[in-house]
Amino acid sequence: MINKARSAAAAAIVFSATLACGSALAADNAPLQVRAVAFTPTKAPANELEMSSAYTTSSAVLTLADGSTRRFPLSYRVLHRSGDYIDGGYAGLIVDHVGRPILESPPDGKGQRARGPFLAAGADGSSLLAIPGAQVDGVKGRTLFLVNHLEYATQAANVDPGKPPVDLYGLLPMAMNLTVLDQDAVSGRLAPVKLANVDFSSVDGLWIPCNGSTTPWLTHLGSEEYEPDARVFEKKPLEPMNLYRGTPGRLAGEGGANPYRYGHIVEVFVRPDGSTRVEKHYAMGRLSFELGEVMADGRTVYFGDDGDDVIRAMYVADRANDLSAGTLYAAKWLQEDGADFGRARLHWIRLGHASDAEVKALVDGGIRFSDIWEFASPEAVKADPARFAEFRPLQVYTGSGGKSALEYYRLKPGQEFAAAFLETRRYAAWLGATTEFSKMEGIAHSVAERKQWTAMSYVRAGMIDGRNGTRPQDDIRLAGDEKDLTCGVVYESQLRGGQKDTSGAPIESDFVAVDMVARVWGERQPAGAQVGKFDKCNTEKIANPDNLRYSEAMRTLFIGEDSGKHLNNFLWAYNVDSQALVRIFSAPAGGETTGLNVYDDINGHAYLTANVQHPGAAEDLGPYPDSIKVDLRRKIDPRGMVGYIDGLPAMTR
Hints:
This protein is mainly beta. The chain is built from eleven helices and 41 strands.
């Protein structure tokens, strides 16, 4: 297939040599048998050109089974940027339920509206899917599919040309793109040949999709982050999704968007002809989902819950490779040590069992927040404690529209099921689960090692000893300098079978996380640092880890940043054997590294997908001096990038 608009692929900024070691591969592209894989470092940006660009200068150094070594230079390749037209569709275009471009936003908090069409620069979670028997437009071959998220749009022009641009976060429905790719059999190069929006009309649209993962059965598992607070949106229209549905100004009870339809794990099935089917998994609960990560059994799933005062959740499906029914749990942190970002055992509290159909029936029936909970303020409880004797104090992130604060709740009789799956975080807190986690984001795991890694992007607030404030429990008490803790940490967990929940009932999974131990973390920038003069966290260590992915063949944990403490966000390779941490990619200033995924072998080639979200974003560069937020920003292409790190051969152990 021939791409009619190759400008997107040609737009890649490449600082390293193009792949010149293809001869090292076997003629049939058989995976190389490796003993070890190491990466050479990419230096931090040292000038404006590097600060404003996406690049790698790293190489992968492979030690093969026979003891010989091979070196593979890497390069970064852009598949498309927001706004690129690729045979059928525009990358990042935001549409309504019938596929029409949205031409005007709802008003922001100041009553300002933005003018469309909107092309989101928020490229996020990606899955590269090699669907057996793929045949698009009658063409067979090594056709691959890439599903990628558009998390949010940053800014757009005001409808009033005399007024400044409008910040768009949370004002629009969002989207996923499906790109058909051609793969060169020899070099492994990918080229986009067709692009379209995934149709979400069957599930009432998509709300703020963040990271994603690829399931063992080759579907894309997406997410909806910062779920709409159903207490707020019971009395206030959810206008971004009303805009998608064509029901402006209406509450859910009046036929408008229902907040309980958003804040779910979303699965995208891609058929061999490139058509798609979408499911929202109501049985997996409702949280600020960063992503869902499926373990090797095809049943056990762990989630990132992004926000302050959030929970750690686990889901065990009834059947392998089918997420439509299962049991939901929330963790209890039992601290053993507060030093060096902490160490704890985990116990699991059972929240309930459900099927998607059962929970969706509640939503279809019009259930409201006030049908599930009674709510009281601290002031009301203090004024009349006897009246609120059955209320419990909770402090959790409540979702978009709300905030984390001490509040009092009483669960209405018979509403345990609804609370577990539609008010998951509040219900977990009601049952005593730990709710002090902050910014719980990426998840990755090793099948061979039976280990899992969890990124805590910022360690702050209730996680820090002595900073619990009004929180009714104090499970997590981490010691240390807050300027170090705020740089974030990656925790490691052992996965075990034969575990029981806190009631004594067996957990039907062999992949239960039993502990959390800090493994990789950041620290404040040392005085007199020679590089990274604008960085608040050490330029030579991770800052605010977000995306995580693990390669079994490379025995490497890849760590992407979403940092306000590094001017340029980086992608790191952490070798779990040598514990070497190496920077392998740098994003333009103001851009977040997103869309991280690793594939050890797709038709004889390995890939590390890596997107850049909102490069040069005004919000991200705002805290910096004019030399950055004004002068450097002018040099940055603001379009989001969907791409990958090229040059890796297929590998196996």
